[in-house]
Amino acid sequence: MAGTAMDSYFDGLEFSTFYVGGALCGINILNIQEINKHFEITQVPQAPDYIQGILNLRGRIVTIIDLGKKLGLAPVKQTKDNRNIIVSSEDEHIGLLVDAISDVVRAGNTDIEPVPSNIGGVNRKYFQGVLKTEKRLIGILDIDEVLKE
Amino acid sequence: MFDDDETLQMYIEESLDHLADIESDLLAIEESGESINLDLVNTVFRAAHSIKGGAGFMGLTTIKDLAHHLENVLGLIRNKSLTPDSNRINVLLEGFDTLETLIKNIKTSNDMDVSDHISALEAITNTSLPLDNPAGVTEFVDIVLTDGRVFPQVSAVDIQDPVSEGKNLFLVEYDLIQDIQEKGKNPLNILNTLEKTGTIIESRIDFDAVGTLSDGPVACRIPFQVVFASILEYDMTETLFDIEKRYIHAISEDMIVSAKGPDMDPLPGAMPSPKEPAPLLAAEDLSAPPPSSKTGSEVKLAKPPSSLRVNVGLLDTLMNLAGELVLSRNQLLQGISASNLKATELSSQRIDMITSELQEAIMRTRMQPISNILNKFTRVVRDLSHQLGKSINLVIEGKEVELDKKILESISDPLTHLVRNAVDHGIETPMEREQMGKNGTGKIILRAFHEAGQVNIVISDDGKGLDPNKIATAAIDKGLITAQQAAGLSDKQKIELIFMPGFSTAKQITDVSGRGVGMDVVTTNIESLGGIIDVTSIYGEGTDIQIKLPLTLAIIPSQITAVGNERYAVPQVNLNELLRIPAAQIKEKIETVGNADVVRLRGELLPLLDLSAILGIKKTYDSPENDEPLPDRRQRIADRRSRQHTITPEGMIRETAVEKKATQKRRATDRRYHAKSAINIAVVSAGTFKYGLIVDQLYDSEEIVVKPVGRHLKKCTAYAGATIMGDGKVALILDISNLAQMADLAAISTAGQMTRAAEQAAEASKDKAALLIFKNSETEYFAAPLNIVQRIERIQTTDIEQFGNRKVVQYRGKALPLYELSQVADFSPLPRKDQQEVIVFKIKGRELGLMITPPVDALEVTLDIDENTLKQSIISGSIIINGHITLLVDIFEMVKMLNPEWFKDEGKTDKNHQKAPEFDPVTAPVYP
Hints:
The structure holds 2 protein chains of 2 kinds. A 6-stranded mixed sheet of chain A has the order 8-1-2-11-10-9. Chain A has a single domain (13-146), classed as CATH 2.40.50.180. Chain A is mostly beta strands. Helices cover 6% and strands 46% of the residues of chain A. Chain B folds into 6 domains: 1-136, Four Helix Bundle (Hemerythrin (Met), subunit A) (Up-down Bundle); 139-298, no CATH class; 312-365; 369-549, Histidine kinase-like ATPase, C-terminal domain (Heat Shock Protein 90, 2-Layer Sandwich); 555-661 and 669-758, no CATH class; 767-915, CATH 2.40.50.180. Helix content of chain B is 35%, strand content 27%. The interface between A and B is medium-sized, with 23 and 23 residues.
């Protein structure tokens, strides 16, 4: 069982974890530009269902995706814990709306295990693998796949 | 290949600059033919020469070769041993085209094959050379220096020319490190300086002399050799070249030996010098592999960023503004920290002003003259007209008009399309033109000008024009419209059918109308830039295509509207007017046609689109009691008390009875009569579409900055982008033309048009008109529209004077011609009486009298005209009034029969009149 080694020198991977639709997921922290709670979102009629809307982030238009809907889980409920995780992809900033943010988790390269076939109700293609911690399983998202139109 | 990106980039830009004007220069040279304009030829020659010079130095062998051959031909033209005929100019033009391609793809240029061009160019040079020197221009010589080294493969002609002019030849060896880099120069500068005092014959870098790292003592020199011809004496060259004298070699005749065979390999193991150590080149290593051109293909660099030329004055302005901005910021910060409201307000005003100026100045840096793209059409028209055997004169006006770089790049293709269309289908062959009595040479005018903050580009030709009826027939054949719809279209509307998607598929159109290839694509392109395209054409006389473009794409004035809680921006360019229909008038103004809502706007039926419906936004209305938004259950905008038209299966439109029963029972506080229930409509147009967009709110007009939306939203075609409003929230920009397509507006418009056509046909039966009723003989009843009647007079029969069969009467000091109906049609002559009643009509500023029999009566009647039964030349139909069959006199037609000379200058109006026999006193043509 791979733990979260707390060495001062660390050359593994770091994952920012968060809750979405009741599941705990993680994204490689290097993909993340920022995490914010701007919710002045403009709705975009006619957009795909999983698009929450668009947001002005310091003069840039950022598309906000409801990660719960995109992954096929429950849509993100409006609470005070909601956050946008802004990731950068193909020269564009995209926000992932999640239910709540959790810890940053460290893991070695070898700690990531393949996605089990019985992962509940979620499309497996969105996950790179799973990371086991003492308490729970963290689904590691494949950002490129999640952000595909 | 040379790997200094900066120098290479500079070379590319300079070369492209040189090439920019070559095309027009060459065409001018072609035009002048035998009487050669030496200045022009020299310009082109120098351009080719500079490109060659740089290329040699950069190791761009293919470019150098091609430029060299081009230069040769130009040299021959310059010394008049070659006449620049059309074929030769063609070869040159194509050569320069390829040269441009090579320079634009400089990294791969060495791998490209230009042998076709070279052999074509050689064919030209060979034919013109004196017989004793057939290989002339392509012959090469080597230069053997006193120290025994050889500078190989120099064009013999290049060397002989300056020598015969008495110039001295030098071989100058610069060192790239010491003489150029350390002195802060750059090789291109040096070449440019040299060009001013003489002629550069060859330049190259001796890579061999550099050696490799493994050669022990590191090379201290990278020789950059230039063969140079100048009138300067050897003694003076030191100052000129700014290098030590030992690196300057004077070349005497005996040092020039002919090369070993016509070796075309551009870098034949450069400097295959004798083994004796050259004193200057300590690290010379002849065993080093020759620098082959393969390095070129190995180094694949990212495409260099494109650059833009900006006026220095403009840069200074920008700098000033930036300075002012900093000052104002300081003031603002001070004001804020001192909580000085007045100072803050002042500086915010200043910042507001500076921002606008800065915005304008920065926008101007992006502005490029339209000549950049218009000029290329000289060539397009020339090539195409040659190919088609037509003779066309292209006139370009307004070259100095400036447009945003991005727009300029995007309109190039649509414009090419339009110009090609004009050449291909618009202008006739010289023979056809002469048969039609036109000048054999057609004329195409490309005109650019500013108007109302927009740039207009007009492409006019004096060709055969568009035939509205053929276009309509073609559209019917393609199933785009029905014959019934076509009948209701005006000529202008018929011509506009060419913009309809699916109308044009090249071949059929060429056969049918001769225009319209891919016009819908052109329209789409122009509209995606926020532009408008319009066509006017007179059949047989020519076509004008007018394009209106915004100056820039980045900032557009827009009307801000709102639906629900979100704001939407409607680009001003699409906006025609704003319309507010008060709740109380909804039932009168808004009607339904089939399934669509339409509004009657100044007599036209305008289809309505509900933005919330197209976008699928849940509609709410504010409850009049407590202003809370409630979901709106209303399905249709049109009140159910509105006029309803239903489309019957036969395609006929009938008005159904207005529902009356429920209306009276409604409460006086009907919420639809609440002020908030008024309907706000933005009347917009895009291309052929014009419609009313229903929104909840209309706000201000604002200048908005267009921002692209993310890739997930690219499929939402309803939006042209997004913008950030003053409060920081994002608003979407609507794409008016795509919205129309989403809502299938074509169908609605069609329904609207059908209604209109049906109405127009029925208008006669429905509408009232004022008529003057009179009799000819006792039993013949006639009527004429009252609005052209001046007055009715009763004159003494004895006052009528007769000249031949013409009758006149003195009337207010003038002669009033008198006529009676029996003169022009088969009616009974007037009975003889002592007094004669005359109706005075005024037509085309002249008065004439129609003699009739009373009683005369003015009546407001419902027009229900039978246009068939009793129709004849001057009678437009019959109508039953007061139980009598009454004939409607077409006064215009009558006057035309009696006085054709009155209408002589009015050929067109005349024709129109004939085409529109319907009796419509309201729209009857008004003659000046």
